[in-house]
Write a structure and sequence with these properties.
Blueprint lengths: L16 H30 L2 H20 L5 H30 L13 H26 L7 H31 L11 H11 L21 H17 L2 E2 L2 E2 L10 H5 L1 H14 L2 H8 L5 H10 L5 E7 L4 E4 L7 E4 L11 E7 L9 H4 L22 E8 L13 H11 L3 E5 L10 H15 L6 E11 L1 H16 L6 E5 L24 H12 L8 H44 L12 E2 L14 H4 L56 H6 L41 H4 L5 E6 L5 H13 L4 E6 L14 H18 L7
Parallel strand pairs: 5-11, 7-8, 7-9, 9-10, 10-12, 12-13
Antiparallel strand pairs: 1-2, 3-6, 4-5, 6-8
Helix pairs in contact: 1-4, 2-3, 2-4, 3-4, 3-5, 4-5, 7-9, 13-22, 14-15
């Protein structure tokens, strides 16, 4: 039997005219409401801090007086109490923010770039105050209306009061940093006892209030629905996440079963806080890689730019020769990656909007790795485009533990179209299975291969740009440093989006923002860095051991045993190769014979590096002929591999503290007086103020006081001046509200102080990782276009047609 819908005439559906008028009037009202709210927001942002605080206090007192006169009811009592709390916190926060704002300009890169963690913290607090001011005005105007939603407004006011209380605590922490840091320095450098106090206090702060109703309040409004979707997916994914004897068991459907978290923001915030504190790096690896499942990746590709070439290549682990830039008649051997797992292929993805000469050659086709149906995306044209004079080598982000070039392919396709140049994106091995320096070795090997075989990639190689985001930005810097150390061609420039340049865990004002950032919480940052440093597999607390069960403990202990065996074999192999390379150095090399070196070191240590082998201590870069003799005094030493700088015993607070001997960039800070040391960070709070503490118990922060994090190839901000002076022009695009902002500001300041060409552009109101959100809204598209503009500047390409 046919349904009523099936028996209707097959005509286009058209609503009645009266209904269309009603819908039109509703949409017009919504547009007017959005414009009015945007205008009010702009007016609030133009208000100075004191005026905003005074207006909020006045409204809070008026609402207090009204609701206190409404009788002894529970709702009226809570509303009176919440407005009293808003008044108290606003009055306490305003002077602290004023002091931070008065000195914030001292930490900017220059007058044209007013950005640093202190400014970001003040801006975030202003956003919270502005929202409370808007809500307090709404309550004052509508509290007598029969349509006033008391419970909804009360819940929102209580949530933002909790956020304001925590922001006040962060403002006091920032003030403490001002008193302990070196003048002009954003990162803490000094007494470990002070930073230990800071970390003990900081990790106990309540965070759930920032993940419920207040989620993403500091970002542009277009981002907030996306963050809400991500948070619901995260907590739903966390419920379905489990460990068993075979590994991680999750399903894609786990992202779509979070209805109760969508309707209960407080429950979502509490669950979000539990997840970020208790689940390990394997959970975050699985969650961040969810976009690579077939269904979601296919949808992303359907919505992205169509390109003629998107091929996954597998580069075999074969050593090859590269000419030295100082003398092209001499060569150096580029060895395949060896650290941890031994020689293995390196995966890269070639993306090109046009099919160019060389990209369909038999030689390149021999490297192609099948991806199933997607490998057929190479669509031949009757005529090939000539080789581009430019090449972009891209290194993706993902905290060193997650994602691949496939995750970043949508915006890379747009880049390929806009730049008219082929892009080679490197799929490096990920931690914790492949910790430092495996990713660096693979990226350096792939970069050198691209320089040598650029003709196969559809480029003449006249201009080469290294580009990366987040962890990929870190690897862009370290690959360039390593290329300079080897004496081979460095890229013509680096574009790094929101890079991580300081992996040694320490305090800075922008790092305080990790308390509220839904994409980069502090515990997640620490777990990713710990995994990259090779410390992720160390013992967990007893409670975690009980949760694993007998089979889980057996699996963990077996993994530790295999890891130790692998690291020992890797160290033995590297030491054998290094000593062999040192012996071969003793032989003279004639001018007419190309110089061949088997350099296979995994990392360069700091100048004061402590390796246990005297013969290796004497092995310098200038001994290998990779640097000029004039640089030998500051040249770092070669190490066997990262394992020789392996993690030390865990610190007493389970957090990675700065080691006693500082980097070349810092001098010993002035000694703090005994009173300051006794007071600690907790005493930075005024009497009577108590921030909210986490209800999840003590946070396990699996980081270690390991000297490896001081390695300049892991934390380029700590590199000596002689190394940073080898970098090409650097263009950094950072986010004002990113916990990693200070990494960009301090790195740019160091390069500027050395006379190195560097630019820093800071985008407002966007979160870390905006490149992956490029298609989301106008603001992210503009920020992504800024990155393309920086790359275009490096490649000397003409601007886009107007």
């Amino acid at each position: 039997m046919e349904s009523a819908w099936e028996t209707r005439p097959r005509v286009a559906f058209e609503a009645p005219a009266s209904k269309r008028v009603q819908e039109g009037s509703k949409s017009q009202r919504r547009r007017r409401w959005r414009k009015a709210r945007a205008k009010a927001s702009r007016l609030l942002q133009r208000m100075d801090l004191r005026t905003m605080t005074q207006s909020l206090v006045t409204l809070a007192e008026d609402n207090m007086a009204f609701f206190s006169s409404q009788g002894p009811g529970e709702t009226a009592r809570r509303l009176t109490g919440v407005f009293a709390g808003i008044r108290e916190q606003a009055l306490g926060l305003e002077p602290a923010l004023g002091r931070l704002l008065s000195v914030a300009h001292l930490f900017d890169l220059d007058t044209e770039t007013p950005a640093n963690g202190y400014r970001s913290l003040v801006h975030t607090a202003r956003c919270c105050l502005a929202h409370l001011l808007h809500k307090s005005r709404y309550v004052a105007s509508n509290r007598r209306s029969i349509f006033f939603r008391t419970s909804h407004n009360l819940a929102e006011l209580e949530a933002y009061l909790a956020a304001l209380t925590q922001l006040r605590a962060l403002a006091y922490y920032a003030q403490r940093l001002l008193t302990t840091n070196q003048p002009g320095r954003l990162f803490f450098e000094g007494d470990e006892r002070v930073i230990a106090d800071f970390l003990r206090e900081y990790v106990t702060l309540h965070k759930g209030c920032f993940y419920g109703r207040c989620l993403g309040f500091q970002f542009t409004p277009a981002i907030r629905p996306f963050l809400q979707t991500i948070s619901i997916g995260l907590v739903s994914f966390g419920e379905h996440y489990k460990r068993n004897e075979t590994g991680i068991s999750v399903t894609a459907s786990s992202l779509f079963t979070g209805g109760r978290f969508a309707i209960d923001p407080e429950l979502r915030g509490a669950e979000f806080e539990r997840i970020i504190q208790n689940l390990d790096v394997h959970f975050w690896k699985a969650f961040w890689n969810i976009t690579e499942i077939q269904v979601l990746s296919s949808l992303a590709n359907m919505a992205s730019t169509t390109v003629r070439v998107s091929r996954l290549l597998s580069l075999p682990p074969v050593a090859f020769e590269m000419p030295l830039t100082s003398d092209p008649e001499l060569t150096v051997t580029i060895s395949p990656p060896l650290a941890h797992t031994g020689p293995g292929p390196v995966l890269v993805r070639l993306i090109s909007y046009d099919l160019r000469e060389g990209q369909d050659s038999k030689e390149l086709s021999s490297f192609v790795r099948s991806e199933g149906p997607r490998s057929l995306e190479l669509r031949l044209r009757p005529q090939q485009a000539p080789r581009s004079r430019a090449l972009v080598v891209h290194i993706h982000g993902g905290g060193f533990v997650a994602q691949t070039s496939k995750s970043h392919e949508p915006y890379l396709k747009s880049w390929a179209q806009e730049l008219g140049a082929p892009i080679l994106s490197i799929d490096y091995s990920l931690a914790p299975e492949a910790p430092f320096p495996r990713a660096l070795e693979e990226c350096f090997y792939a970069y050198c291969w691209a320089v040598k075989h650029c003709a196969l990639l559809g480029s003449t190689g006249e201009r080469i740009c290294l580009a990366g985001d987040s962890a990929g930005g870190n690897l862009c810097f370290t690959v360039s440093l390593r290329a300079a150390a080897y004496g081979v061609r460095v890229p013509d420039g680096i574009m790094a989006a929101y890079p991580a340049t300081m992996l040694q865990s320490t305090a800075s004002p922008s790092r305080l923002l990790s308390l509220m950032d839904p994409l980069l919480p502090l515990s997640v940052l620490s777990k990713c860095v710990s995994a990259y440093a090779g410390a992720e597999t160390e013992d967990h607390p007893a409670s975690d051991q009980k949760a694993l069960g007998v089979m889980g403990l057996v699996q963990r202990d077996t993994a530790l045993l295999l890891r130790d065996l692998r690291l020992g074999a890797s160290s033995w192999l590297n030491s054998f190769l290094e000593l062999g390379g040192q012996k071969s150095h003793l032989k003279s090399v004639s001018k007419t014979e190309p110089m061949r070196r088997s350099v296979s070191e995994a990392a360069l240590t700091q100048p004061e590096g402590s390796l246990g082998t005297d013969s290796l201590k004497s092995l310098k870069l200038h001994d290998l002929g990779l640097r000029n003799s004039s640089d030998t005094t500051d040249t770092p030493e070669l190490s066997l591999s990262a394992e020789t700088l392996g993690p030390s015993a865990p610190s007493t607070i389970n957090f990675l503290l700065g080691s006693e001997d500082g980097s070349e960039m810092s001098k010993a800070p002035e000694e703090l007086n005994n009173k300051d040391r006794v007071r600690g960070v907790g005493a930075a709070f005024p009497e009577g103020f108590h921030p909210r503490r986490c209800s999840q118990g003590a946070m396990w922060m699996p980081l270690y006081s390991a000297p490896i994090v001081k390695n300049p190839f892991m934390s380029p901000l700590l590199a000596p001046d002689s190394m940073l002076q080898t970098l090409p022009p650097v263009h950094i695009v950072a986010c004002a509200l990113d916990p990693m902002l200070d990494d960009s500001v301090m790195f740019a300041r160091r390069l500027r102080g050395l006379g190195q060409p560097v630019t820093l552009r800071v985008v407002e109101d966007l979160p870390h990782g905006f490149l992956s959100l490029a298609a989301l809204c106008r603001e992210t598209r503009q920020a992504a276009a800024l990155c393309v503009e920086r790359i275009r500047l490096i490649l000397n390409l003409p601007g886009p047609p107007v």
